[in-house]
Amino acid sequence: MPMKKFINRPENIVPELLEGFALSHPKQIRLTGSNLVARATPKAKGKVGVVTLGGSGHEPGLSGFVGEGMLDISVAGEIFAAPGAPRCLEAIRLADYGAGVLFIVLNHAGDVLSANITMEMAKREGLNVKMALTHEDIAGGSNPEDRRGLVGFLPVYKVAGAAAEQGGSLDTCLEIAERMGRNMRTLAVAVQTATHPSTGQPIFELGDDEMEIGMGQHGEAGTGRMKLKTADETAEIVLEMLLKDLEVKPGEELLVIVNGAGATTLMELFILFRRVHQILKAKGIKLVRSQVGEFITTQEQAGFQLMIARMDAELIRLWDAPSNAPYFVVR
Amino acid sequence: MPMKKFINRPENIVPELLEGFALSHPKQIRLTGSNLVARATPKAKGKVGVVTLGGSGHEPGLSGFVGEGMLDISVAGEIFAAPGAPRCLEAIRLADYGAGVLFIVLNHAGDVLSANITMEMAKREGLNVKMALTHEDIAGGSNPEDRRGLVGFLPVYKVAGAAAEQGGSLDTCLEIAERMGRNMRTLAVAVQTATHPSTGQPIFELGDDEMEIGMGQHGEAGTGRMKLKTADETAEIVLEMLLKDLEVKPGEELLVIVNGAGATTLMELFILFRRVHQILKAKGIKLVRSQVGEFITTQEQAGFQLMIARMDAELIRLWDAPSNAPYFVVR
Amino acid sequence: MKDGITRDDFARMIAGAAASIRAQHAMLSQLDCAAGDGDHGTTMLRAVERLEKSFAPGSPEDLKACLREAGWNVLGVDGGASSSLLGTFFSGMADAPACGASIGASDLAAIFEAGLAAMRKQTKAEPGDKTMMDALVPAIQALRAAADAGKSVIEALRDAAGAARAGAEATRNLTARYGRAKLLGEKTRGHQDPGATSMSLMFEGFCSGFEESKGESGNA
Amino acid sequence: MKDGITRDDFARMIAGAAASIRAQHAMLSQLDCAAGDGDHGTTMLRAVERLEKSFAPGSPEDLKACLREAGWNVLGVDGGASSSLLGTFFSGMADAPACGASIGASDLAAIFEAGLAAMRKQTKAEPGDKTMMDALVPAIQALRAAADAGKSVIEALRDAAGAARAGAEATRNLTARYGRAKLLGEKTRGHQDPGATSMSLMFEGFCSGFEESKGESGNA
Ligand SMILES: Nc1ncnc2c1ncn2[C@@H]1O[C@H](COP(=O)(O)OP(=O)(O)O)[C@@H](O)[C@H]1O
Ligand SMILES: Nc1ncnc2c1ncn2[C@@H]1O[C@H](COP(=O)(O)OP(=O)(O)O)[C@@H](O)[C@H]1O
Ligand SMILES: [Mg+2]
Ligand SMILES: [Mg+2]
Ligand SMILES: [Mg+2]
Ligand SMILES: [Mg+2]
After folding, report:
1. Is B146 exposed, middle or buried (0-12, 13-18, 19+ CB in 10 A)?
2. CA dist list (Å): A307 to A83, A138, A149, A303, B135
3. Which ligand places an atom closest to the C-alpha of C89?
4. pLDDT score at D216
5. What pLDDT score was predicted for residue B1?
């Protein structure tokens, strides 16, 4: 069966999608250098630049969050593959407005490798850059190194981006990013695989009546296969695991994100969120902010990521700060 | 094969999704009366209210666009089914702040029936309400009555909503809505069916190597089946049909919307948009505004809608006006 | 008058229609998959449930009031085209002058005619357009003809049900010109219209409900 | 010195590796489907293309400069873990002191060792972890042992290729502890690691490229 995707030649997917993205948001972003997604209007001198990297095929993530109040530059790799160090280095040079650069990296093998090589090169060049690694996927087990970075990138970009926009120093921005990172947890659920847009191959196999908890963004099979459950049951299982891992106590304030994997509808995400809201309320935990939508997708995979994060007053203030990123406008 | 959707009991889908939606955007919207989606803070007295109706299962459409600068109330029906007149009437009563109500209706058999019955009841009650019908789907042929209302609801809500917010009279708002409506055209393409969330049945059948141009929102089979084409070829075919129907001339200014049907990725929408941009540029037609994303979906159907609209200075100004609707924030 | 209809008879006619729809709702949804969105059975289920409630113990004694309530409740089903039309049908019935306490075949025809007239304000569909009108219009015509010929209520209802069934079956060879199915045009041939089918089922139910009400056997 | 290697010999070794990867890239992507994302063959294709370009006519005459260029270019493939590691490998080779104009087996071992040392700054994976290291480390060890034993370049390369193949094949029974596959843990057993497989293919290619370069037959 031919792949039912609107593409042209597979090897042109990434440049073409970036071109289309840039053309569709000319006021917010532009392509610069080696296809780097940058803010249309660079930040003022003396402010910290915020850069990220990651594979393509997860739209709107990650480049959808370039804009005032969030990222300065996103370095997009090939489909599901990290960009190499040369383009990352170029991005860091460009995003250095004199106050250094915060480099936000999601914990995935390829991204981290590339980021480490970049950091080494950047330091050799004398660039002032610090790296913040996100790793909030509790499916990875208890070792933080094994926890991947999932939709938690969103609050990290948001609060660190706001801190940078407001003139925070590189150390301040790093501290904010790390504080956000330490206080968040994500778990992913998949019910249906996607096809790899370059190869047309299904990414993983899942039985007709199965779902999997602990799914990765690229569909690498996770660990918890089980029979399909209702929305309420699924939300309960996932939320309980997250609350336990983050050791959330009654009275604490949470940000909740429900991220759709691609083919799962917003309708379903609302139904799941409703149950999350009910459970938190019953436990006396305060749901102070939330987002329900598609922030990082894996093609037409069906499933979702649930993220919770413990917030403090400063994180909330930064989360609420304005942004004109194409897929995260905050007034 | 069981349906792979995160739902609970099929008959509870709509109330549960509305509950989740309202809980996820407490600052912008709330549920009122018989599950009507209303602005959290009602408009000031003396302004025109803007109300719409439509089936559920198309999230974020239509209720995702309730907010300051757009809709006052959205009346959501069952999955793919228009709400009945009683709830529409209730909404119109609630949205009457003393300057009358604009009732925006998408041309679909059930919606129009319900809207007409509502209008009759409203008039019997002496309510000041006017109806604007959207019908921009050129797949319906040359008779406007046969043209369905597709994603064109978005600019109509936006410009009429902005006019109302700015204090325009009911006649002004109606004129704006109708002017926007007259100047827009949409065509839909489908490559993969969705399952009906209540029944688990596929909505239509399409061969493994087929696509269909002229698809409806509910997947009622359209008219133009053909072999799958590349993104560029598909964009060319659809855009040419739209430009011809709207009789667009070089130098004119267009708004373009690429709306994903559900499972089609933003990646693909960008690739399609890129080609649209190239063609318009080559023809000397000005693409002045654009939106690429999911505004009205049909479950996990794959495909897209392409909409073009001829803009004038006033329509652009209203399009650019602020909005805090959950799925259409404009700063 | 043995042959007359009271509010309670009407309630049993409704109960009969409800039973008939309940037994066939899956088939109705299936029919709606061919050229629609597969929800017709579900909508009709909700509609007849509300019809029954409108005539349940505790509802008004007055037939007119019950019918008005029934119409409003069916309009409130949020089920798309068919519930709006069916709701309008019952609302319209309430406007019939003949809508008194005990009524004959001719009054019954007048009541149904008033319902049909109200529907015609909302849809231009007529028999031949492949909609519920293909069953409803001939059914009401047969009812009127039977009444005019002096037939009893049950005879008139049987004529109506027969006409409705024939009308519904004939939709198989028609091309849809209204509703969702319209866009499919010629492709709708070969499938019986779901709305017409449910109208035929409702008239069958009216018969059996009325028979039960009067304790009559099938060979009146 | 007949057995020495020049920049041009190195270029032909690269060409041999490229040919070997090209012939098998679909299989490599297929292997990557089992516990990865199915792109390894594509990435390796792009990587070897860039390696070839870095040694193409017009590129620096100096082996060191070519290797540095090759490393940078492979890093720029944007292909995830493997291109970053392979790029680092070639960048690292450029830092070897032995990297002169004409080199022997021992110098070649030193060059590869420098590449490996650079990689080890980026990954803690060692043989047994089911990564490309399972092929690369024994291959370079075999190269060194052959050089120390006074074998010719081609003999040393053949030993290396044999060790790489054995290492790659042995990954089938290992559990992944690095890269994307790590999350799958025990489930990765039974599948040969794609990265190790491509390293083995590259060493085979080095041999055949070098043989062609020297016009030697297989039984040297
Ligand atoms: N304009 C119309 N006039 C008469 N009957 C109609 C009209 N539109 C639809 N119908 C009837 O409604 C039926 C479909 O009902 P249903 O599936 O419940 O509603 P929807 O089409 O909104 O999903 C059709 O089979 C047809 O008989
Ligand atoms: N940390 C690591 N150390 C060594 N080799 C690694 C590491 N991570 C991945 N690899 C190798 O890379 C291979 C996968 O390469 P590839 O599929 O091209 O990259 P990606 O996993 O980013 O898609 C694995 O089979 C493994 O051999
Ligand atoms: Mg999607
Ligand atoms: Mg979607
Ligand atoms: Mg239907
Ligand atoms: Mg891979």
Report:
1. middle
2. 26, 10, 11, 13, 40
3. 1
4. 55
5. 54
What is the band of C219 on the pLDDT scale with cuts at 50, 70, 90? very low
Buried b (16+ CB within 10 A) or exposed e, B82-106: bbbbbbbbbbbbbbbbebbbbbbbb
Cis peptide bond N-terminal to B272, omega within 30: no
Atom of ligand 1 nearest to the CA of C32: 17
**CB contacts, 8 Å: B293 with chain A:** 327
Name the strand (E) or helix (H) holding B259. strand B253-260
The sign one gets for the Cα dihedral A249, A254, A258, A259 is: negative
Handedness of CA A238, A242, A247, A253 (dihedral sign): negative
Bridge partners, B12 (sequence order): none
Which residue of chain D comes nearest to A202, CA vs CA? D33
| CATH code of the domain covering residue C124 | 1.25.40.340
**Most confident listed range (A206-220, B124-138, D205-219):** B124-138
Residues A254-282, mean pLDDT to the nearest whole number: 97
CA B56 to centroid of chain Cα atoms:
12
Share of chain D above pLDDT 70, in %: 96
Indicate the pTM of the whole model: 0.94
Task: Kindly indicate the confidence band of residue D184, based on its pLDDT and cuts at 50, 70 and 90.
Answer: confident
Q: Does the residue C167 lie in any domain?
A: yes
Residue D220 domain-assigned (yes or no): no
Query: Is the alpha carbon torsion for B65, B70, B75, B77 positive or negative?
Result: negative
Domain count, chain D: 1
Q: Is the ipTM of this complex over 0.85?
A: yes
Here the tokens at position C150 are 């002096």
Q: Using CA atoms, how far apart are residues A86 and A107, in angstroms rounded to an integer?
A: 19
Q: Is the pLDDT of residue B265 over 90?
A: yes
Q: How far apart are CA D13 and CA D9, in angstroms?
A: 6
Residue A37 and residue A76 in contact, taking contact as beta carbons nearer than 8 Å? yes
A-chain residue closest to B63, CA distance? A267
Report which secondary-structure segment, H or E, holds B260.
strand B253-260
Q: What is the largest CA-CA distance in chain C?
A: 50
For C41-90, write each residue's pLDDT tens digit. 999 999 999 999 999 999 998 999 999 999 999 999 998 899 999 999 99
Write down the mean pLDDT value for chain B: 94
B270 with A21: Cβ contact below 8 A? yes
The domains found in chain A, sorted by start residue, are 13-182+320-330 (3.40.50.10440), 184-313 (3.30.1180.20)
A288-309 pLDDT tens trace: 999 999 999 999 899 999 999 9
Burial (0-12, 13-18, 19+ Cβ within 10 Å), C153: buried
Calpha distance B88→B115 (Å, rounded): 8
- One-letter identity of residue C163: A
The domain in which residue D153 lies consists of 7-212
Please, are residues D73 and D35 in contact by the beta-carbon 8 Å criterion? no
Within a domain: residue D2? Answer: no
User: Chains contacting A with at least 3 CB pairs below 8 Å?
Assistant: B, D
Residue C151 phi/psi, 5° resolution? -70, 160
Residues of C in contact with B146 (CB under 8 A): 182-183
Omega before B62 cis (within 30°)? Answer: yes
CB contact under 8 A, A208 and B268: no
User: C78 and B77 in contact by Cβ < 8 A?
Assistant: yes
**DSSP letters along B124-183, please?**
HTT--EEEEEE--BGGG-S-GGGPPP-TTHHHHHHHHHHHHHTT--HHHHHHHHHHHHHT
pLDDT in tens, A121-140: 999 999 999 999 999 999 88
What angle do the packed helices B170-182 and B313-320 form, to 10 degrees? 110
Question: Is residue C94 a part of any domain in this protein?
Answer: yes
